[in-house]
Structures are given as structure tokens and as C-alpha cells.
Amino acid sequence: MxxxxxxxxxxxLLLVWQGVIVLLEPPRYLLPTPMAxxxxxxxxxxxxxxxxLLTASEILVGLVLGALLGAGTALAVAAFPRTGQIVWxxxxxxxxxxxxxxxxxxxxxxxxxxxxxxxxxxxxxxxxVASAFYDGLRRTDGAMLDAAALTQASHWQTLRxxxxxxxxPSLISGLRIAAPLAPLGAVVGEWVGAAGGLGFVMMQANxxxxxxxxxxxxxxxxxxxxxxxxxxxxxxxxLAPWAREVNHPTPSYPQxxxxxxx
Length: 262
Description:
Elements: H1 3-24, H2 34-43, H3 45-79, H4 81-95, H5 99-110, H6 114-137, H7 142-150, H8 155-178, H9 182-192, H10 198-207, H11 211-235
Helix pairs in contact: 2-11, 3-4, 3-6, 3-8, 3-9, 3-10, 5-6, 5-9, 6-8, 6-9, 9-10, 10-11
């Protein structure tokens, strides 16, 4: 994922959006024009900036805490297998609960402030990171484990010097999946109960049929999503240099040319 490709995708989306406006001419309360959304950015800059920064703080804190908690849980389950046999099924059961069921409870427990939104983001980030990392930790090649056993390496040495490094690519994959979901966690929390944030702005705009304001808020959320994915790619680029991605060229096959007919 590169910045150039992302910009091209955004430009293509804007062109398609404008094309739909020109061809179908929908009412503005159903689908605003790109220029109407741009006008919201220009005229309500301070308003959007205030709520955007509030949501950004919820996203970043929740992303960091969720990633640390997910990776730590997976590592602890791998380090203590007997305890993990009890803990991991509980994690899977909690994962089965829809986030919209948990969001009202979090507001009751943590209040209408930033804490409930951070907790919602932590929950959404936790499961992809924990699942991916734990899957990588328990799928170490058996031949390598046998080789480590021949060196009389302890359980902790095998975990630290063999299983953990080999599982880092799985952790990176989990972070790449989880990071773009972080804005969802914050917004869901703001929808349930908040006095600020982009989710709050969207709820208020929806009640007033201010579709242009809703699209402006969604545009900021989309920017956050892209920035988080690009940021994770940059941060994790050197985390596992032994497992770099390789762009394999498309193989070209020789074309069959029939010979001259006899």
C-alpha cells in the first residue's frame, strides 16, 4: 500500500461520486456534491477540527492499548500453555459478543467521557491482534522445535529466540487488520453516548438531514483509516526483516504458435 496508489484511489472515488451526481441528480439531502462537502471543510474548520482531535485521541490511545493487550495476551497464553487452555476459550467467547451489545455497557461502566470510547477501541483492536499473534506462536515449524530440543534449549529460550521471532510476521498481519478498525471502535462508542467527537457530529447531522456534514465527518474518518494503515506499514517495516514481502512478477508464458499445416 503506497501513498501514490491511495491518492489515485481517492481521485477515482471523487470522479465516480461526481459522475453519479451529474447522471442521476439526486436530492442534496440524499447525496451532496463533493464541492458541498468541501464547503463544509472550509466554513466549519474549527468545529470539525475540535471533534476530529477528540476522536483521534480516542483512536490512538485505544490502538496502542489494544495492540499491547492483544500481543501480551497471546504471548502469555503461549508462555503458560496450561493456563492458556483455560484463558483462550474465554477470549474466544468474549469475541463472539457484538460490539453494539458491549458499547452501552461500556458507557454505563466508564461514563460518557473518553474512557468508554477508548475501551470500545481496545476491544475491537484486541481480538485481531491476539488471534493473529497467537496463531503465529503456535504454528512454529516442528522441525525447528526439534532442532531447538537437541540443543537442550529451555521452554523460555525456545519461546524467546525461536517462536517469538518467527511469529512476528503474524503479529504484523494482525496489526494491519486491526489498525483500520480503530476508528470504528471510537465512533461506535460515540454513537452510543458522547458529548463530542466525529460520531457525535454524525448523529447530530443525521437528525438534521445535514448530509454534507455527515460526509465531511466520514471523510475525516476515512483519512484516519488510511493514515493508520500507512503508519502501521511504516512502523512495522523493519520489525521482521527476515520476512519481508516480495512482489513476485507475473510469470510470462510463451505463446503457442501453430506450425505450418502440412
